[in-house]
Each structure stands twice: as structure tokens, then as C-alpha cells.
Amidinotransferase
Amino acid sequence: MCPPRYFAVEYAINPWMDPNEPADAGRAMAQWTALRDIYRELGHTVEEIEPRRGLPDMVFAANSGTVIDGRVLGARFRAPQRAPEAEHYRRWFVEHGYRDVLMPARINEAEGDFAWTGRMLLAGTGFRTDPEAHAEAQEALGVPVLSLRLVDPRYYHLDTALFVLSEATDAAPAHIAYYPEAFSPGSQRVLARTFPDAVRATATDAACFGLNGVSDGRNVVLPLEATELAARLAACGYEPVRTDISELRKAGGGPKCCTLEIRK
């Protein structure tokens, strides 16, 4: 995670950002701190990277890399405003002992568009990550990749429209939640066929970034407003943990955007 010390809405690179409605950096820091503390209270280890002045979106650490079995595929941003973040995160990985770090040749916004199910990597495209980056990820990480096309600009990253509730095991398949209307008709059919038991979110839950959640297989961290989705998840046996991310949402981010999951 990256503290939002320099968080601001200074430009618009997604439909949620409006520089005429500036964010409160202090409030964003308080919300981020609460999210970090939730992870710690749930027993997870949180590692932090030092934020850099002039990079207000560096708080969205999910876009910094994809880590599976200790192998790291870095990021390559589409927006020039975020491009310098990639090198800062690459250095962090190297300085923290990761030796198998590959930087992509194609536009690849990391866990913003990649979701690991335990068996395959779900990969989004349509607005940010190049479709060619999906094949690059398969080669770099050595895992099968399933491509999905996003069609609603409000849900410009996969992690705004889908997240993994529990990874696949020998005893059970992966379980996901997603908002069908964010995907092309073909991708909707692929998701329905691949994940017949998925939790389908409503438009209301999607609009508050309810799909930008983080699950450890039991506890599911969600935006405060995602009430209907929380109820559906509770009915499935999960423990919803809701938190306020309203200030961070002004830049198009939520719990998952702020969280890179490191799988060693």
C-alpha cells in the first residue's frame, strides 16, 4: 500500500475524476489509514511504499504490479500522468528481495486489470490494458489467462467490475463477484459459463465501487455504501467489512485500488 500523502484530483483520466471538485487529502489519508488498519486487524501483513510528490494517484497500488508465486510483472501505464509510478514500484520490488521482476512492453495496469483466481488470471481490456498484454502476462507469469472486454467507461479497470471472493482449491472452484453490464456480451457469456455460481452485483453496488473489494476467502472489505452486495455475500457465508472510501472514490479508487496483493 502507498499512503496518499500527495493525493489530489488534479486531472481527469477516468469518468470519476473532476478537478473542479478537489479532494481533501487529510480525509483521504484518514480513510486510507482505516483501510490499512482493517487489514492488520484481520491478521494480514501490510507493507508500504513511500509516496512521491507529484504522483497523486500513487496511492492506487493495485496498478503497480502482478505478483504470483513470487514472480513480478510490473506496470506500464496508459496515462502519462501516472507513467513515472512504474519505476518507483519496480525499485521497491527489487529492494525488497524480488529477483524475478519483468517490466512489460505493452500497456499493462497490473491488478487493475488482472485478477488471480488460483487457477487462471482473469484479464481485462477495453480502456487501459492492451489486449496484447494478456499474452505477455501468460508468458511472464506462466499461468493461463482468460481475456475479458470491458465496455462501460465508468468501469475502466477490471477491478471496478469484478473481484475474486475465494481462490480455487483442489476441493472447490474459484468464486467471484461481478457486474455483468460492465462487460461485452461475449465476455458476459464467458463469465456465466466459467463461474456459474458467481455473485452478480446490481448497478447501485457497482456505482459505489462495490466490486472494488478485497477478499481473503472469508472476510470481504467493501465500500460503506455497498449494502446489497454485502447482504448477498453474507448469505454466501462471507464476512463483509465495510469502510468509507468516499474521498478516494473521487479519483476513481476504492479498497482494491489501494491494495496490491502479494502472493509469495
